[in-house]
């Protein structure tokens, strides 16, 4: 086994600390939503870091930012994640993957390692979903279309078209960021786990086997609003009772049709008219379901539809549901997974094979090249929160693993 290489830990730590302050507010959370002033500040800072490192800075029509080394080679290995955050986020989600990739590419340049494939550290646009999510990686993979771009707007009504224009881009040009898959050799994304598994095991590395898919529905149940005091219980058409009945069957459906990787969540509920003395005549709620197997996802979707039909009939309610989003599960490339595993063993790092329960740019990129992920532990499983934290020793271990994986894939 060739000698293992190591990163410049002080440089990586300094960059993590610097980026963490961009968009941070008084509550300790990071507010760096896609194409916001804080995101644009982070992008400018990253561009300066790239050029200072002596790497080629490229920005594509989807506003993806890249640091390239040996771009003259016909194919390349990519690594990266995203700079944007949810409101009130922690400082590592996405950002760590970008900065670790930059550190690895810069370190390989410094080591002057001979390469057969070029290297590219990339920061994708809007992974977290201000305008829908995964826009940058979808554009690169040829999955972003003009109709989607025109319809995209955030919760405040700001359109993607206007936000891109304010940042100096033409949103309608975003599909031109599509890459020829013949030029892509592999992709590896380093990310915090965002869950408690690795931390509970005191294990430094997650070897990601597959990335979950998901579907999200908005379900409406309609009955009849009526006086809470004068309407007997057996004569009510109570929409909220229908929601309660449906929610009580989530675990049953998962047990019968799901796997240990299945998840089902009702995360939002609105009841109308919303008065203490009125029987709820209407309820609107979301159902989000995840699994790493496409066939299991289909079975769960069918089972939840049957359950919804039975609940509506039982409570004399009118049912309706709208599909808000669908994202297919993605297995990681066996070749990339095996390369990561070999490098982890060479570095003497313990690892745990696991799925990703969260969606990532990697699953989009997996449609156009060999792709895989490396997880590092999240303390207490906390993420999307100011309490998000990963010990630097684990960050260093994960980035050293990424470094040696990229060297192996590119040489």
From TrEMBL:
<protein>
    <submittedName>
        <fullName>Zn-dependent hydrolase</fullName>
    </submittedName>
</protein>
<feature type="domain" description="Peptidase M20 dimerisation">
    <location>
        <begin position="213"/>
        <end position="308"/>
    </location>
</feature>
<dbReference type="InterPro" id="IPR036264">
    <property type="entry name" value="Bact_exopeptidase_dim_dom"/>
</dbReference>
<dbReference type="InterPro" id="IPR011650">
    <property type="entry name" value="Peptidase_M20_dimer"/>
</dbReference>
<dbReference type="InterPro" id="IPR010158">
    <property type="entry name" value="Amidase_Cbmase"/>
</dbReference>
<dbReference type="Pfam" id="PF01546">
    <property type="entry name" value="Peptidase_M20"/>
</dbReference>
<dbReference type="Pfam" id="PF07687">
    <property type="entry name" value="M20_dimer"/>
</dbReference>
<keyword id="KW-0378">Hydrolase</keyword>
<dbReference type="InterPro" id="IPR002933">
    <property type="entry name" value="Peptidase_M20"/>
</dbReference>
<comment type="similarity">
    <text>Belongs to the peptidase M20 family.</text>
</comment>
<dbReference type="GO" id="GO:0016787">
    <property type="term" value="F:hydrolase activity"/>
</dbReference>
